[in-house]
Write a structure and sequence with these properties.
The structure holds two protein chains of two kinds. By secondary structure, chain A is an all-alpha fold. Chain A has helices at about 5-20, 25-45. The model of chain A has no long low-confidence stretch (mean pLDDT about 80). Chain B folds into two domains: about 1-110, Beta Polymerase, domain 2, CATH 3.30.460; about 115-165, no CATH class. In chain B, helix 5 (about 110-120) runs parallel beside helix 7. Classes of the chains: A mainly alpha, B alpha+beta.
Chain lengths: ~70, ~170
């Protein structure tokens, strides 16, 4: 691999980060939940929390009625 | 997640705290790429001065069926860590938080400039990592940041940080 190729990869990664940074907050939370799911699978630890993204994901007995 | 903010809004309405704002990794994520976290940090200004400012908040949450788990309270399936403002910088940051839309809710998020200042003050390895991301990816108001850093005596640390960790110095 040439030095120019490495630079191209780093520039691509940087552009991807900047693009992700400009996403709406709601979409970022969606990505965070995906990251939590991936981490739970990789670590094989079902105790790791995955945030419920929609109100319907919440178990009824834990829902707020205030 | 918007229902967590409904709970917080209700707590504010009941006078359990004066104001709140999202901080930590989730607030940072508002400004740069998503990063893995499990806890939603909420900074709040207590209604009254006292030794145990968390007690009335925990009592209210437990009454509504939300259980404490380690250092957080699980609200609507999300571990939420309630952190009372612990110094002038953090108090000022909550007072000047940015109001943002999240689905159907209005939420308050610490601004990028205050998050940078707080990260410089705490300065743990993860704060330094976030600082690099802020400077690389976030839109930051340099004048406002300069004002905050000067007011809280953080200018020298910021200069030192930039020299050590940023390519352009």
């Amino acid at each position: 691999m040439k030095a120019g190729d490495v630079e191209k990869i780093f520039r691509g990664k940087e552009n991807r980060r900047i693009k992700l940074a400009s996403l709406p907050f709601e979409e970022k939370i969606g990505i965070l939940v995906q990251l939590q799911m991936i981490a739970r699978e990789i670590k094989k630890d079902p105790r790791l929390p995955v945030w419920p993204i929609k109100p319907s994901d919440i178990e009824p007995d834990k829902a707020f009625r205030g | 997640m918007e229902r967590v903010f409904a709970v917080l809004k209700e707590m504010e309405r009941l006078g359990l705290f004066k104001a709140y704002a999202v901080g930590g990794a989730v607030a940072a994520m508002y400004y740069f790429e998503p990063i893995l976290t499990y806890v939603l940090d909420i900074f709040f200004i207590p209604s009254k001065e006292g030794v145990d400012v968390l007690a009335p908040l925990y009592a209210y949450l437990e009454k509504n069926g939300f259980r404490p788990e380690k250092e957080a309270v699980v609200i609507e399936g999300i571990p939420v860590q309630l952190i009372p403002v612990y110094n002038e910088l953090v108090k000022e940051a909550v007072e000047n938080a940015h109001e943002a839309d999240f689905r159907n809710a209005k939420i308050r998020v610490l601004t990028a400039e205050y998050l940078i200042a707080i990260s410089l003050q705490t300065y743990r390895p993860k704060d330094r990592e976030r600082l690099v991301k802020f400077l690389d990816e976030a839109l930051v108001d340099g004048l406002e940041l300069g004002r905050i850093l000067k007011a809280h005596g953080l200018e020298d640390r910021f200069a030192e940080f930039k020299e050590r960790y940023c390519e352009s110095g």
